[in-house]
Amino acid sequence: MAVPRNALKKWEKAREFALGLPGATEAHAAEPHIDEDRGARRSRRSTHAHALTCPGAEPAGYGLGKAGWVGIPLEQKGAPAAELLCDWVEESYRVIAPKRLTAEEAADGGAGRTLTGR
């Protein structure tokens, strides 16, 4: 089954943003990703409740939901916009990245980035 274009575009924007953060690399177990459910997954407790209000959202499988990961179908009406996905990526990055990398990201103007200017 093909990934709907709108969901793929959202994911591509969030992925591009994430990979632009200092020290970021692509891994499959610890990043938001489009999977067999055509969704994104994220892992930040402070916005966990907000993420669960998205249409079709549910705690991630394999026990990851207990750690705050949420699966969100991106193709559904009312799914988060790319900008919100990027906000969640940046929020999670600031929690888990070493302080030297978050300082580097802030020095590069990270707080004022926009989706197109990241």
Automatic annotation (TrEMBL):
Q: Where is this region: Disordered?
A: 22-57
Q: Mark out the compositionally biased spans (Basic and acidic residues).
A: 28-40
Keywords, alphabetical: DNA-binding
Q: Which InterPro entries match?
A: YjbR-like_sf
**Alphabetized GO MF terms:** DNA binding
Listed name of the protein: MmcQ/YjbR family DNA-binding protein
